[in-house]
Design brief:
5 helices, about 60% helix, mainly alpha, single chain
């Protein structure tokens, strides 16, 4: 479960931490004590946030969090088929009893292509 978290949500958390750090990294060159203090505080907040978001909380929640009712593995993910416009059109045609010729117009009627 922890590995799945690191694969699925970890990059988003890391991206948020890095982008936040890049937003205020220019303060490190400031000569003002107030701006340097702000940089130091913000830097520590980002570091502690990344540590808690990527390491500490996932480990703690894997021990004391709610039990998982199912396990999603790479094998199961491969079975999940993506939803496309063609899939939606086919489902719409089947639900409305229309022939599945792959062409459904915007008003919901099925159109035939003659060549």
């Amino acid at each position: 479960m922890l590995t799945l978290f690191q694969i699925d949500i970890g990059p988003a958390v890391l991206n948020g931490g890095i982008s936040t750090f890049l937003a205020f990294v220019m303060l490190v060159n400031s000569r003002s004590v107030v701006f340097l203090l702000f940089f130091k505080i913000f830097f520590l907040v980002v570091i502690f946030g990344l540590y808690h978001g990527l390491i500490f909380l996932p480990v703690i929640l894997s021990y004391v969090g709610p039990p998982t009712s199912y396990s999603v593995t790479a094998k199961h993910r491969a079975k999940i088929e993506p939803i496309t416009i063609a899939t939606i059109d086919e489902d719409y045609a089947k639900a409305n009893g229309k022939a599945d010729n792959g062409m459904i117009s915007t008003n919901g009627t099925t159109s035939q292509h003659h060549q």
